[in-house]
């Protein structure tokens, strides 16, 4: 534990120094609150609006997680189908590649129209489309980029296609899948908050930030941004933990 | 003829077609008796690995017939008559050592308990008891290759096909594994077909050395090596051992006088 403490000490130190510098600079240069609030003001705003911030943070997290679940499941289905049947691959892959080039966030008003502006599903669908491609393409890569010698080995056992899939391709794809989900965790929060900017239920991070900024209560907006960052980091860490449980053999996880 | 486990008649293998066609193997006739240890040796590109893969039905001949245990090579593969060991161990990173050895057994209808027992016995055979729960990356290259051998033998295949299994290992590890492989061969009575670049390795291990020429790959000679069994470190100092090495080397050089062949470079 003390080793861990020593390992993280420099990072914590930098964080504290930045906070102090920020505070001192804002006071010394007499910078206006609406341009850049002091950390102490943000902390005060955080304490004052704690309950509301927790509520809006939770609501946005639900959208992000829901969207990731929907988009991730769809991505897995398509990746599996594509890896298993070459015809499916030829039919679906061009669309997946095209989808990646679309600025998904532009769809937010359309999703509001389709699923109802007040329905969290409209935000989830933006997130789902946003995370679909990285998860799909990464998983597909893991399913198909298999050591040819492994396939030859399975062939020498007269293994069925199914056995090759379950025993070689799927385990091979797991690290690729987790890498994509880690990227997507961050992506899903960005997607959810930006989608909220396009209107909808009020009790969410995006709307909270817009409203507070509109009334020049920037310390409150900054407090919400801190919450958004904390939620995003926590989400990421949860997936890292899940990866460690799911892939005990992985070198990056320190092995068995 | 009757005790031949593998018999190849008039086998030819051509890669590609038209003007790009390469004759990899030509006029291959070979009989491998039951329980033999046969090495295939020749310069790079002589098709010795292709020949091994043909026997194992990992590739198909352009012409000729291959019979294994009196049936086609294809049938033999479906019957799981082959254990294969490649130059790289090809272990699955996500499986422990023990579960890697269990892999081929999972393809047959035997229960979990029997599988584990069998895997443990195989790991004992290659002297890796105590490493069952390790992951492959935690083992040295030589240990990984021993796991691969344990895995190949776990389902008691009729024939063990080995494609330069010790080629990536250092000389000392290689010599130790040679002796271990001979012990395993004698304990199990498995027929072994072994591809190698190394003349001393071929002579030390084999009861027969198949000497091949390059492009197109042909069998130049089959040299019976009747050094006494069991062989050990003393065998490597035996005068007759050196005699066989010279015979194989001269046979290899026969067609290619003057410039040194790939075999000599690899063996030096």
Shape field of chain A? globular
Number of helices of chain A: 10
- Spell the H/E element sequence of chain B: EEEHEEHEHHHEHEHEEHH
How many DSSP E strands of chain B? 10
Distance between the termini of chain A: 20 Å
Structural class from helices and strands of chain A?
mainly alpha
Structural category of chain B: alpha/beta
What letter string, H or E per element, gives the SSE order of chain A?
HHHHHHHHHH
Characterize the largest beta sheet of chain A: strand count, sense, and whether it forms a barrel: none
Strand content of chain A: under 5%
Summary tags:
heterodimer; A: 256 residues; 10 helices; 80% helix; B: 268 residues; alpha/beta; 4-stranded antiparallel sheet; 24% strand
Characterization of this structure:
The complex is a heterodimer of chains A (256) and B (268). With 256 residues, chain A is mostly helical. Chain A has helices at 2-28, 39-48, 50-84, 86-101, 108-115, 120-144, 148-156, 161-197, 205-214, 218-246. In chain A, helix 8 packs antiparallel against helix 10 (218-246). The radius of gyration of chain A is 23 Å and the shape is globular. The mean pLDDT of chain A is 89. Chain B is globular. In chain B, helix 3 (97-106) packs across helix 4, helix 3 (97-106) packs parallel to helix 5 and helix 7 packs across helix 8 (239-253). Chain B is α/β, with parallel strands linked by helices and 268 residues long. A six-stranded mixed beta sheet of chain B has the order 6-7-8-3-9-10, sandwiched between helices. Chain B has a four-stranded antiparallel beta sheet with strand order 2-1-4-5. The A-B interface holds A 147, 149-150, 152-153, 155-159, 163, 167-168, 171-172, 174, 247, 249-251, 255-256 and B 56, 58, 77-80, 82-84, 86, 88, 90, 92-96, 103-104, 106-107, 133-135, 137-138, 161.
